[in-house]
Structures are given as structure tokens and as C-alpha cells.
Amino acid sequence: MTAQVETMEAKLQGYKQDLGGSSAQGRQRLLAIAGMADHITHRRMEGLGIQEGWRCLEVGCGSGSIARWMSYRVAPHGHVLTVDPDTQYVADAAGATLEVRQQTIPSLRPPEKTFDLVHSRMELQQLPEREELVERLVASLKPGGWLLLEELETFSLFQNDTGPFLQVVEIMHAMVRAAGTAVDWARTLPRTFQRLGLRNVNAEGEMLFFSGGTPTAEFHRLTGEQHWPYAEKMRLLTREQFDQYSASLRDPNAWFYGPTIFGVWGQRPPA
């Protein structure tokens, strides 16, 4: 596998763009992420005290489900700014409470000392500029404001028994690493938050255990579909292996260890 990873990088041109949400399949995958993870994000934000009147920033809007939910929670006098290169799934919700801005994430330079809550999910670990972006997000917090970052950690996936699911997961894991995604970055964030002066830093990982036919299974199936053309081109998987993987993820009697949705939060010291 190590030798394969070393030869992947040059063959993955356009790979990350194809994993976006612009296609119908990409849209379905974003909706599956919402079904898989929104309840976790809601709980974490509620624990931080999101309320009417807060000013919030969401970095990467995906399907738009979290931006909409945040705007409901801070209305009528609060404000949510959501930023993403592709805002097509949330643009219709823009209004007095929700501002939608189409912009690349690496170019984001939010105003300093502005937000009560800044959030990003499954976004920064894909970007080479992630460390610099965290510094900018910390600087954008009001005194007393909270930063909540959520990323996927993949170690729990490898607890699955040997079979089609694990075989495909191993290939996809190697591909995302070769493409530059920092799959183990989340575990470094508590120390980063402390280094940048945040207080009340805390972290948790919620490991998903799921059956076929659920939103989490659909997320994995659709992610596999987006990886398949590249895996086929590099002869990493056979069609038979991939079809077995997809079939298992539709089976309600099949159960899997899923990824761990790692959340880290910290608060800017009061003035």
C-alpha cells in the first residue's frame, strides 16, 4: 500500500474537484453528511450556548443545513455569515439573518473580534492552508466567543472485519492522504487552540456505528462512487470488489464501524 500511495499523487489531478457537490451525486452526498452529522453539530453548538442575537460564521456550507439551523437559532436580531466556493444549496435561504458569500476558503480573511461562534465541519483538513486559517478564525472571535471545528478521524474505520467494506475503505483512505487531506489533523487541534490563547478548550470524538441503508451508509457508498473512477484507473479495485462494497452498504442487516466525528472547541478570553 505504501508504494501505491507514493505513485498516486500525480494521478489524482482533478480528484478533489470531482469530490465536490456540484453534481447530482455530490448533492446526495452532502445531504447524507447532514443526516450523518447534523445532530452531533447541533448538540455541540447548543452546549456552547448559541442563542438569539449571536453573530456567527460558518466556513464551508455544504448542503446548507447547518447555516439554516444557526440562522433560526440567532433570529431575529442575530446574524450568520456562511462562506463556500459553491453556495448553490443555501443561496435561496439568504436574508436578513443569513448572509451567503461565494468565496474560496483559503482566501477568507474574516473581520477580527466580530463573531460569537465560528464553525467549520469536514472542510479545513482538506486544505494546505489549514493552520493559517485556524489562526484567522481565532482572530475573528469576539472576546468570549467560541471556535468549534469538526473533522473526520478515520482510525475507527479500520476496526471493521476484513471484507469488501474494509478493502475499499483502505483504498479510499490512501487516496485522500495522497491528495493532501490530513486525516489525523483533528487530534492536534486542542494543542493548537491552547497555543493560540483560547481557554476552556475541550474535545470529543463521536464514533459512528451504523447499518446499511442509513445516511452514514449512503455517505460511504456515494463517497466510494466518487472515488471509483480513480481507483479503477489506477487498478486499485476491481468492479466486483466495488459492487460488493456498495451492496453491503444497502443491507440493513450489515453493521459497520464508521468514522469518528472529532469536535474541538475553545473560547477567546473575555476582554
From TrEMBL:
Stored InterPro entries: SAM-dependent_MTases_sf
Name used for this protein in its record: Methyltransferase domain-containing protein
GO molecular function: methyltransferase activity
Keywords linked to the UniProt accession: Methyltransferase, Transferase
GO biological process, one term: methylation
Any Pfam family: Methyltransf_23
CDD domains: AdoMet_MTases
SUPFAM superfamilies assigned: S-adenosyl-L-methionine-dependent methyltransferases (SSF53335)
Species whose genome carries this gene: Archangium lansingense
Gene3D superfamilies the record matches: Vaccinia Virus protein VP39
Cross-referenced PANTHER family: PUTATIVE (AFU_ORTHOLOGUE AFUA_2G14390)-RELATED, TRANS-ACONITATE 2-METHYLTRANSFERASE-RELATED
Domain of life: Bacteria
